[in-house]
Amino acid sequence: MKIKNITVGGLLLWIILAAVAVIQIFPLVWLLDFSLASSNEMFTNGLLIIPKVIKWDNYIKAFVDGHFLLYFKNSLLINVLAVLLVLIISVMMAFACTRMHWKLSGLVRNLILLGMMIPIHATLLPNYVIYDKLRLTDTMWALLIPYIAFSLPQGLFLTCSFMESIPKEIEEAALMDGCGIYRIIVVVITPMLKSSLVTVSIMTFLNNWNEFMMASTYLSSPKWKTLPFSVLEFTGLYSSNYAVQFAVMALTAAPMVIIYVILNKYITKGVAMGAVKG
Q1: Which end of the chain is flanked by fewer CB atoms within 10 Å, N or C?
Q2: pLDDT tens, 31-76?
Q3: Torsion angles phi and psi, residue 196, rounded to 5
Q4: CA 163, 166, 171 angle in degrees (round to 5)?
Q5: Sign of CA dihedral 40, 42, 46, 51
Q6: Residue 162 CB partners (closer than 8 Å, separation 6+)
Q7: Which residue in 94, 272, 83 sits closest to 193, CA to CA?
Q8: Where are the alpha helices (DSSP H) in 36-104?
């Protein structure tokens, strides 16, 4: 049975997918709705409310009192550095594991990929002891090192999957033209890994953006505190003003949501191609 070239099964699938999409998007809509209302209006009946007056000052309080610019700058700096270093190391490791011939290449690759099975917070206490002895606590490196280390297995997996699909003849031709190994990686290989590198960049950024447990353990002064700290501080500062708390949560989530919406197709494409090639 077909209705305008659409099968009943296809229509049912679209209905299910639309319902799932609404369920997934609703928390964000709910967050924005309550962040623009007053605290008194939040205790009315219903999942959503229509504010009598849109309270933009909730966002002003969240922006100023939550030290949004400072924490945003710290989060952006740490995450951008983590992404750049993960990309550089992933490409070099992938080239070493897929193109260079040495006995332990497979073993080293598998050991690194096993890192995907280790939760990042399982190393919380050992890392703290090491950082304390090295005097790295309350520094940018206390977050940068674990962020990079736990993002590398995923970066290596995706980068290796794409690099294995690149014909070796291209590299051999570049070598015959006089290219050295580093020039081959930068000029020949890296541009061909564009989809993989974009995917690794986005996933590394999104995974580390909202990380809070390590940040709260290793950081004590405001100098390097990241954006999730603004939510924690507002819990005490505006414990009875829930609308402002919703506003600071919306500001914290906004950069990640915007990046995901804009670059979602690259995430889907990269993960799907990596899964097939891997």
Answers
A1: N
A2: 888 788 877 776 666 677 777 778 888 888 878 777 788 888 999 9
A3: -65, -45
A4: 105
A5: positive
A6: 192, 193, 195, 196, 273, 274, 277
A7: 94
A8: 57-65, 68-98
